[in-house]
């Protein structure tokens, strides 16, 4: 294993490039997708697939899904170098979902630059995103590590299960966004996060467990660790947005209150709607549902969240989830080196750029 | 087997309803997608998944992909009733691609009514479409026919392969649509059809062969039959649009020349661009690339196609493909009853409503 987790990045990118080269040619298309019945439009597929994909990847991202996978694989006594193509599976899937989510959410920016559909057109972006849902699964067919059939089948069935739930999560999130008056419980919010964000983390953990032939108990524990951690991070993001906004609100020219302006139903909002006096709750709903908000309105919403104790509530929930994630790991009894790496991993991810 | 192919429709729809009920509840969600970590928003998922799906299915469609699958399964000596859930796999996948393609193509109508994204919003429609890419694969995990592991793995690997190529086909098609000056060869056009339309037909054939444990030679022959037939149908559609347009052009108030108005690069257009005098070719490109066309311009484009002999050319190619499809079947030596049903099937599909 490399000295630090960040050092994996070049090797991961090289493995990704083997799956989706920056410059595609006939030889790649024939070997990866199978012989053409007639003739591929190679130049067209460069524009429709490889260009948008690398435009997104070259903007950054720590490839933490691939890194976490490699940490687990090493813990289970295998040489991570041999499993690099498998590490690309969750990473490529994740980038596919980003492209599609940005279209669905009408996002204008991604990693500080225009969202892909603003560069390539919605049709190309969507099709590229969707193509990335199936492209990495081909690794299981190519089978570079020579896995036996039962593990490859288990990997496919796991991916089917988790990718199904990913779409349930996105479906719930979109519906709440479209229907301002939808009543959401905190449990429904946590489920949305567990499905939408957690399932991709679960894929990382379960794939590592499956291909190294771990017991169902170990696979479950790692999956729960990954899901709980992902949900805790999501809540952490929501808290940070409110805290930074309260801190920044006085500063001239600084953006603040993005989540409020977007009308996002975060855990803090759901808590405040349940706990606030009904006049406050109604006012909060009104501000969140408005197409545009003044700075004063955003501040008003933020103080309703503060008054309801929603920041403390969310922080407690996030800490509780993080503690439960650690408990899941304790049950697996990982080696000291892995425990150290997972601590490094947490820091690595928190300082994130996406 | 039923008396006529159309009689399968109620049983197929019932099997589809088992996979995606019209009214979803907690019990379905927990049993199909697995226990919630916290709590599903069942009402939300009704709106985000089941409602758009059944809105589309209730508009019609002959479920011919499921029917063809059942014809093959019976030919191979199995009771088709037992394989109904598997028959739903290509059918649900197909409906998923329709929803997504309509967003990508900016379609306004589908089966005579508003495209789904015009009813539910683009975000819900897209996510529902994408969810349908993974939902039916769950049949292989549920495994109602008790298939051994090797066949389930083979089915997953086949689906990965074909769904990858489906996205290549769509990518090529979109690129040609966006870049009016892209030079396309007839072979590239046929490849686009083989990938975009043919791969879903290949899934039908290969799935039937895999789950009934046929040889690779039989699986290939059926897949080629399905692909060749699908491409021949596509060309047939393109010819019909031109012929009907030439016939209808004089009639007051009738729409004609839809493909020309949409700027579609059909096999006829590609042939005409290659074979026409350069002035005609340039004029044809100009009309296809224009945002709006007068009836006179559409007629002008249609006569360029006529003068270049493109209708005859396309008809010959379609007949040749259909003949090659029959040759593929001859190699398999199907029973008389199956041969009769495949003839019935061709008629059944040609009189289609989508």
UniProtKB/TrEMBL annotation, chains A, B:
<dbReference type="GO" id="GO:0008299">
    <property type="term" value="P:isoprenoid biosynthetic process"/>
</dbReference>
<keyword id="KW-0460">Magnesium</keyword>
<comment type="similarity">
    <text>Belongs to the FPP/GGPP synthase family.</text>
</comment>
<protein>
    <submittedName>
        <fullName>Geranylgeranyl pyrophosphate synthase</fullName>
    </submittedName>
</protein>
<dbReference type="InterPro" id="IPR000092">
    <property type="entry name" value="Polyprenyl_synt"/>
</dbReference>
<dbReference type="GO" id="GO:0004659">
    <property type="term" value="F:prenyltransferase activity"/>
</dbReference>
<keyword id="KW-0808">Transferase</keyword>
<dbReference type="InterPro" id="IPR033749">
    <property type="entry name" value="Polyprenyl_synt_CS"/>
</dbReference>
<dbReference type="InterPro" id="IPR008949">
    <property type="entry name" value="Isoprenoid_synthase_dom_sf"/>
</dbReference>
<dbReference type="Pfam" id="PF00348">
    <property type="entry name" value="polyprenyl_synt"/>
</dbReference>
<dbReference type="GO" id="GO:0046872">
    <property type="term" value="F:metal ion binding"/>
</dbReference>
<keyword id="KW-0479">Metal-binding</keyword>
